[in-house]
Design a protein that fits this description.
The structure is a homodimer of 139-residue chains. Chain A has 139 residues and is α+β, with helices and mostly antiparallel strands. The first copy, chain A, folds into 2 domains: 1-38; 41-137, Alpha-Beta Plaits. Chain A has helices at 2-37, 55-66, 68-71, 104-111, 115-124; strands at 41-49, 77-82, 95-101, 128-137.
Chain lengths: 139, 139
């Protein structure tokens, strides 16, 4: 009888732990869905470098942009790539970057004046022919 | 003794089901990580409408763009928003759209010539002052 009681206790405990796991898992899934549906602020930055900018200089600038998310935590997401559009609607722009923020305040008050961002902008200027920037809130 | 055997069987079965759940959950998580790291092709489209385009006309065009993902399954992701950049580097463009594809082939051979896309482009032309398009592969 003692054995039965012990086994029953273990069984109930196992069921309890299993249920807890299910509940935690469901909560995580709900959180993921909420995050996916949250609005975010996209910051699209597109460069065309001067003809005389060397490949090494352009690479260095791109590398310096790529490391900004390591220093500026309000950058929620960062991606970049070279223009690949077959349509002739790109005004000869070549380097495309997309940064994601959670608010205009984080963009304007933390990212823009951040010393690392300001140093990057200063290093960029001599080699840049033109820049295009649009931002939008996802819907 | 029979009771103990029955309870043990139930216990082992419960543990087995619980372990299966864990394995499936882990596999789903791994798949999510792989998807996150997969390269995708971004297609950025930015409009400025003519001054004479009415608010209703612009709204209708935007609505027509927004429903394209319902008809063209190769659009993996779609988002849009109104330009919100405080920097004067947007050339007066206002409407920003980002479509995501898995390949250039799906973009060029399925999306671009798709009748729904072609009808949208035709409806757009009379009201559009200018358009800017860049595409890039995420890295």
């Amino acid at each position: 009888m003692k054995q039965v009681l012990l086994v029953c206790t273990v069984l109930i405990f196992t069921c309890f732990v299993s249920s807890c796991g299910e509940i935690i898992n469901k909560n995580n899934k709900m959180e993921a869905v909420v995050k996916k549906n949250e609005k975010v602020l996209r910051h699209i930055v597109i460069f065309k470098f001067k003809e005389e900018a060397s490949e090494a200089e352009v690479q260095k600038i791109s590398d310096n942009f790529n490391v900004l998310p390591n220093y500026i935590s309000v950058i929620q997401d960062y991606e970049w790539g070279l223009n690949d559009s077959p349509e002739d609607l790109h005004q000869d722009f070549t380097h495309c970057y997309m940064l994601t923020f959670n608010s205009e305040e984080e963009r304007d008050s933390i990212y823009t004046p951040h010393p690392k961002h300001q140093a990057f902008v200063a290093s960029l200027q001599p080699h840049l022919e033109k820049v295009f920037v649009v931002d939008y809130w996802t819907k």
